[in-house]
Amino acid sequence: DENSVLRDELLFLGGPASSAYALSPFSASGGWGRAGQLHPKGQELDAAAQPEGQLLREVRVLGVPFIPRARVDAWLVHSVAAGSADEAHGLLGAAAASSTGGAGASVDGGSQAVQGGGGDPRAARSGPLDAGEEEKAPAEPTAQVADAGGCASEENEVLREKHEAADHSSQREENEERVTSQKENSLQQNNDDENKIAEKPDWEAEKTTESRNERHLNGADTSFSLEDLFQLLSSQPENSLEDIGRYSSSRQYHQAISQDVNLHEAILLCPNSTFRRDPIARTPQSQEPFLQLNSHTTNPEQTLPGTNLTGFLSLADNHMRNLTSQDLLYHLDVNIFDEINLMSLATEDNFDPIDVSQLFDEPDSDSGLSLDSSHNSTSVIKFNSSHSVCDEGAIGYRTDHDSSSHHDLEGAVGGYYPEPSKFCHLDQSDSGFHGDLTFQHIFHNHTYHLQPSAPESTSEPFSWPGKSQKIRSRYLEDTDRNLSRDEWSAKALRIPFSVDEIVGMPVDSFNSMLSRYYLTDLQVSLIRDIRRRGKNKVAAQNCRKHKLDIILNLEDDVCNLQAKKETLKREQAQCNKAINIMKQKLHDLYHDIFSRLRDDQGRPVNPNHYALQCTRDGSILIVPKELVASGHKKVTQKGKRK
DNA sequence: TTCCGTTGTCATGGC
DNA sequence: ACGCCATGACAACGG
């Protein structure tokens, strides 16, 4: 029904399942429009220029007032933060009740509950969702919202027009906002009870920290208590890498004040546009090195427990100290990545840095990927490939091809994550890549399957030079031998789908998947290559099978024809034999007849001069051979009766 | 070491 | 134009 559709939509937006019913007040009393009037600070609520995507469409289908996502997000945020049990359980009635007064509690636990009371919870946000949104969607004067005067239809009409004006925005932009919304809600969920954060899986905590990061970057979250973060940070031992990773966002907040920019923080502070899947702003050259580096700095599991993370960050910091964030993207020394690469490898058991360095020092090392052949890409591939060794963070993913549906999201949120602590990310753990990170966290289990018909371990994402066979053997002994080259590559690049999915997915689902998920160009390229190679591999197998079938059929045909030939030969021999017998019988009969014939003088008839001829009436005539040779044209009755 | 079969991959053309 | 499929050709690998 319509409510379930809206609920699914909100689920996709990242809101808690219960919050989906926040839309119910739409149809009840147009409460959103009136809620705008109740905004205590009179802050703008509308960012109508932002496309609202499917949510808007669903809302419009229902004929309810259009609610900008920013409002919905804020409302959801505060509904959750208020701890309303009814709302938390997704009761329509409760949501309807909240439409008039809102939740009334801020994420700060009440100390900054300025938006509370009777205010519209959606108004709690002091600004638009993010800077980009602010630019595209100028603040709508509060008076305009208030002037709606509870007339939901009027506001709906205005907002709808605004939306239609902004309808040109791309689907990707819409997805970005969805992810942002999702993260916003994650933030609220985590802020609601900070104590729970340590109990949550790392992936969830990571998502939370990223949400904070984004808020920090956007400067839109003014209600977040920095003091809380400082206390939280100070309560955690700095030498705990896990804690460092977990509270990376806290460190970031701290950095924002101290201006002590280290590598990690500098990365996290990079403009979002750099890492979002913006077809204009983003380039593979600028993105990939960044992602690689950041992934290792933000992932506590990828570093040895005894590794001096601070030292490492300082090392990288020296490289970037004089670089802007954009410069960083283009000029990060590849050697750094090599170092990081080896560091990440060092986390593996039986790691031999010499062997591995030899491995990657091998000239003519063919990645085997028809990816971007640029230097950066190559280094990335190597890096990722090596990293995949330690990457056991297979997260549960759905094997059905419709994994991107909202229902799947709902199911995946509560899904099982085998090793969340090992969910070390490469290119999704940066602050600008929440989409991939979040979606991967939610959706997927990176349990890459072995294709049944494909004997593996003969190809890897990088070549194994001949003299490194020993290393290879050792290498493979410690890892999953059953991963094919593409599976390795997919795992290394954090492709959130299995090779089987990529290859077997219908083209429509495949394209939908590519557009729905936040994938780097490298990932998209790899996915397409995997799909192409996978399909071609199957085609080649079919072709060879077909060719073999043809050969076998031809061989069968040859056998059959040979047998038939033999049979025909035997039949011919039998026929010849019968013919000879008949000839012999006829010959004997001739001689027998002529031996008994006598002419008029009683002399024997010479068979060489006469022949026997059978007439139509059955009588037998003796005809001279010269007459027979003349064509039987003139048969004389010169013969004698027997 | 050579030969041969198998397999994966790429390029190409047809649909 | 795009994607899929079939197929020849090639290389790598293993027996």
From TrEMBL:
Region (Disordered): 97-220, 278-303
Membership in a protein family: Belongs to the bZIP family. CNC subfamily.
Record note on quaternary structure: Heterodimer with MAFG, MAFK and other small MAF proteins that binds to the MAF recognition elements (MARE).
Protein name per UniProt: Nuclear factor erythroid 2-related factor 3
PANTHER family: BZIP DOMAIN-CONTAINING PROTEIN, NUCLEAR FACTOR ERYTHROID 2-RELATED FACTOR
Composition bias type Polar residues, residue spans: 283-303
Keyword Nucleus applies: yes
Keywords: Activator, DNA-binding, Nucleus, Transcription, Transcription regulation
Function (record text): Activates erythroid-specific, globin gene expression.
Biological process annotations from GO: regulation of transcription by RNA polymerase II
Compositionally skewed regions (Basic and acidic residues) per UniProt: 157-181, 193-218
GO molecular function list: DNA-binding transcription factor activity, RNA polymerase II-specific; RNA polymerase II cis-regulatory region sequence-specific DNA binding
Biased composition (Low complexity): 97-114
PROSITE patterns for this protein: BZIP
Organism whose genome encodes this protein: Gorilla gorilla gorilla (Western lowland gorilla)
GO CC aspect terms: nucleus
Domain BZIP per the UniProt entry, residue ranges: 526-589
